[in-house]
Amino acid sequence: MSNLLLTSLLLACFAFAAESQEVFSDIADFVAGPSPADERRALEIKAEQFWDSVLDAAKDMKMTEHWELYDETEKVIAGLPAENTYVREALTDVLTRLKRADETVLAQALQSSDLASEKMVAGPQGESLFSFFTGGQNFLSEALRRFVAGGRYPERLAEHVARRQGDIVPLLQGAAGSAGNVLSDCRLASKRSFDVLKYDIYNKGVPKTPQDAKDLAYKLVDASGETRHRFMNFVTKTVTGITKDFEGRRDSAVVTVTRSELRGFAATPEFAAVPDSKVVINM
Q1: pTM for this predicted structure
Q2: Positive or negative: CA dihedral 120, 122, 126, 130
Q3: Where are the domains of the chain?
Q4: CB–CB of 144/31 below 8 Å?
Q5: For 88-113, how does the pLDDT look when each residue is reduced to its tens digit (9 = 90+)?
Q6: 194-230, pLDDT tens digit by residue?
Q7: Of residues 238, 227, 182, the one with CA closest to residue 57
Q8: Which of 29, 58, 213, 247 is geometrically suited to a Cys-Cys bond with 113, CB 3.0 to 4.6 A?
Q9: What's the rounded Cα separation, in Å, for the pair 9 and 4?
């Protein structure tokens, strides 16, 4: 074989090897799917969405505006004439029950806020994202499994969802354990407030209830309803967040990241200023 022919064959082999390597690289990139950065960001987005919903629900439970009402109630009680014994006892009972319910709800809110804040700061840790080259000698079979079955990302996402459920269940158990007391206190606080309003109407020969006590009773009825509503709203929002998190456990990393970016774009002031602008996110 001549040197020229041998050189030509060697060049052809090199060219084929180089071309094959490029093709294999393209196939590997296709098989690999979403990048590790996309998968990590998708896991972060899922965690942020879940814990942010818990944090929002907890913020709604902070009944700090009732503190002024407590002071007003104490002043009205102190200013009642001596003969208004029933009204005084009723308002005292209402104040005790409302404070107790609000304290329970506030404790639940603080516990939820602390947990959500802690988890949002920590992020989805404890997982090492899949690398195309972590399969050792079996990297091709691992890559094919990743392509066919979606890789390890679905497994990690399912694990994260289960972990978040494990974190939030004790909170819901605590809420369920205190629900009876909160709802009972709110119901009886409202009932006793109405009793104050109708006491001198339906009972003959009793002292006239001062108008400021009746005005206060209306406020206490509203406050009791607010506490009950916010407590139930927290439970509902938290359960809804768990449900959405569970239902999204099969979302791909690309879909999750794209949805987040589109929502962020739609929320920008520049986009919001455009009249009749709409973004439809349906993936």
Answers
A1: 0.64
A2: positive
A3: 35-251
A4: yes
A5: 999 999 999 999 999 888 888 878 77
A6: 999 999 999 999 999 999 999 999 999 999 999 999 8
A7: 238
A8: 58
A9: 9
